[in-house]
Amino acid sequence: MITRRKTLIILSGNRQDALMPLLANHEAIVEVSSPDNLSPIWKKNKTPIIRMSALAGLPVDKTFAGDVLILNSEMFSSTFQPDVTEEFTSFCYNYSVEPGEFKIPNTANNSSDGCLFCNITHHNGLTTEEYNLRSKVVDMIIYESEHFVVVPGLGPLASGYLMIMTKPHYLSLAQIPEEWYDEYHEIEQDIEYILKKMYHKDVCFYEHGTGPNGAVGLKSIVHMHVHVMIDAPLSDMYKNMFCMHPLDNIKKLSPISYFTYKQHSDGELWVTDDPDVYLQRQVHRQVYAEEHNLAKGQFNWRKVPFDDMTLTNVWQLYLFLSSDAPISERIKERTNSFVIASAERFKK
């Protein structure tokens, strides 16, 4: 859920001291000791929470800078963290506030061991054509260069949803070798050309990049992957909400985790690089889902796989790439294994 309202949560009742540490440990919630100067918290895309006892006699209906929500600590059935999180999240969602997930010790695996995307990019020891004949449709390799592959995007919300991934296990685009950037830019240009010809809409690129020492818990698969979407521009409202700013060189982000957005392969790169800014899970998908009026929760690829759309996307790409459409020799060469395998798969 994307929080657009500036809200102060006031925790009341006799269990404030017992529950506040659990509530304030949610990613998008910040405990404050005073209701003054809450703007820096809202600017970080988070929501402040304060004990009623800390208001020092101020009336609850006092006009603060934003909206006020009263949360009675007596509403919680227990102090067991999973129960508290479930009940707190339900309360927040009723008022269109995103609390974020409960912070836990890092659990993600930054290595290539067991990496879902490494299993795809390594072809399981098969040629790309053989692999594309045997793999799941969602794992087919559509485009392949020396160091990168392009595959269907997980849980495609719409037509033309793809992902660009490194073959070796890198955690972000910012961390790949400098000499690979020209090759990567060729891929962006080629994929943009294909999708523009197919759908006649602008192409956007998004990435959640993971820092070398910072796994992202349950936020993402920690293998470099750039999401490619059509008709998915990020408005100034969202850029401001996520504290984004232009960046001239993505390599500057190699030591940290970050979020980037670019409209067009030659467009300006926008970045969120402040670790204190809260970004919702699958934030670019949430924005797209809300902007295109999709049903609640459909942004989450872990819960809604959109299998039919995956098949449609692959089929449409095959039809275009196997047609007489004007495409470069480079695109033909790098998509040839996909076209040959798809012709065999789809004739059945």
How would you describe what is shown here?
This protein has 348 residues and is α+β, with helices and mostly antiparallel strands. The protein folds into 2 domains: 7-94, no CATH class; 116-346, HIT family, subunit A, CATH 3.30.428.10. Helices cover 31% and strands 17% of the residues. It is built from 10 helices and 12 strands. It has helices at residues 16-23, 39-43, 81-94, 116-121, 128-134, 181-199, 236-241, 283-291, 307-321, 329-346, and strands at residues 7-12, 29-31, 47-51, 67-72, 143-144, 148-152, 162-166, 203-209, 225-230, 245-247, 258-263, 269-272. The strands form 2 sheets. It has an 8-stranded antiparallel sheet. It has a 4-stranded parallel sheet with strand order 2-3-1-4. Helix 5 packs parallel to helix 10 (329-346). The longest helix is centred in the middle third of the chain and has 19 residues, at 181-199. It is elongated, with a radius of gyration of 23 Å. The mean pLDDT is 89.
What is the fold's blueprint, element by element?
Layout lengths: L6 E6 L3 H8 L5 E3 L7 H5 L3 E5 L15 E6 L8 H14 L21 H6 L6 H7 L8 E2 L3 E5 L9 E5 L14 H19 L3 E7 L15 E6 L5 H6 L3 E3 L10 E6 L5 E4 L10 H9 L15 H15 L7 H18 L2
Parallel strand pairs: 1-3, 1-4, 2-3
Antiparallel strand pairs: 5-6, 6-7, 7-9, 8-9, 8-11, 10-12, 11-12
Helix pairs in contact: 5-10
